[in-house]
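Take a specimen:
=====
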Amino acid sequence: MKLDFKSLAFGYSLRNGNSTPAWETSLGQGKGYKLKEDNSINELVKGMIYKAVPSKSVSFKKGKGGAFVSGEDENSSLVIAAVFDQVYINEQQIYGGKFILLISKDDSKSHSGRLKLKYGPDNKYVCNGDVLQNQMFIDLVKKQMGMSSDACWFVSDISILEQDKLVLKTTIINPNSSEEYEDSQAHHQAWDIAESSDSIDESLKKEELDASIESWYKTGINETISRNRIFFGAPGTGKSFTLNKERKELLDDGADRNYERVTFHPDYSYANFVGTYKPVPTKGEDGKDSITYEYVPGPFMRVYVNALKSGKTVNPKPYLLIIEEINRANVAAVFGDVFQLLDRDNDYISDYAISTTNDMRSYLAQELNVDENLVETIKIPDNMFIWATMNSADQGVFPMDTAFKRRWEFSYIGIDDALEEMSDEIKGNKHTLGTGSNARYVKWNDLRSAINDVLSSESYNINEDKLLGPYFISKSILESKDNAEFIKVFKNKVLMYLFDDAAKQKRKTFFEKCKDEVKGVRYSDLCNQFDTKGVFIFPEEVSKRFTEKPTTEEAAEANEE
């Protein structure tokens, strides 16, 4: 449907005359203002019926500079309102763009009853608390088409395809700045020439699309926050806790949605992480189970696509990929060529692009609604964050080379950093270890600190990353008053870790009080003696710190639990 001249236009002025767009076009003229016999209008009306929304959910301005009226107001003269979520500027879809079309009936004395198609920037739609306005779409067009805020462009035709696709035939006069004309005649003549010559040639379209792709990479989000980051420290120091806390601060209102978490393990691969072409079960045309092949994205590619989609919007959001235990897999093999993307420039965009495979390219083009040639190479956008945790003290982990490490910012979580977050209830919670004359009251944090002090002394010289963090035992156990459960967990987690890992090389010395002259130190004997000896299975430097004894009744009660 042809629009009235300059009724949907931007970025121009007249030295002599009025340059304010009308933001509407009449659908019928002549006696009775009946609809024109025009196939484009028929398709327009059918599409608006198909995409109709309740009148009460829309509002708009009546006439130039008029006051806002609600669609449910009897004075609004609204006939129908529709919201389209598949909108195209010529052949390019505006991802995330939504456009509101209205048909109202003129109630002026001179044109009473005339139907008008209204598409002004002030058209507003509210649904479930979300506010949508055509001005938001206009801003999005400029962003995705690579135009400046005062660019000169206009829409000359509106059509609806398949009842749900809105196409705006657009001519861009000047993508970089506004234009000024002497008068309406000169204005009309210049734009007629531009439209008839289809001023946007293929090379310009490609330049604009290329610029659009680059604009998705640079959103300006949280410029001071590290993009590639690894949280590391001893077991139980709260690495995941700290990461999750900062995740909520980063993502804010998207904290529960805009991220994905993956845990690396020795068999994890590039195909798992990035994606691969693989068989997928489906239903055939006959309804029977069948197998097809398609590109299945991994967590990296899923977060990457969501970040790019968000970058195409007026209000982009940060997206976060969380990798737990990053060094438990062979990172060189898992990241593959994505490793190259981790180098970021001053704008936090990948310094170097990588080429996409055919199947990856096809997937990206489909997800982003762009031509495949625009995703022949990719970069990580500035709104994509990759954070990971690692424990360098774990046995059997894969080493990281220097080239991989230098692409990350390492955030060390100290052995006692999490104490600030630990409640007074946990810190003060007492447990009874040992029986009879060996029974002692013990607070978890005091025992942990005593063990750490001995392990890090010159006698043992154990690295800090092998010591015990405040949450080596889970928070739920530390909060519990169940003495028997605490003893069980202490044996199964703490004693096993000390025996098999932290004190492994000097277990005969560390557990000397449990050593048998013939058998040496066995884990089963260690657990059995812990039940009766409690803290006295440890070196004297540990046990001497615990002098508070429970009464006979309290000790008996604790052992009965």
Residues 32 and 113 are 7 Å apart (CA to CA). The chain has a mean pLDDT of 87. The radius of gyration is 34 Å.
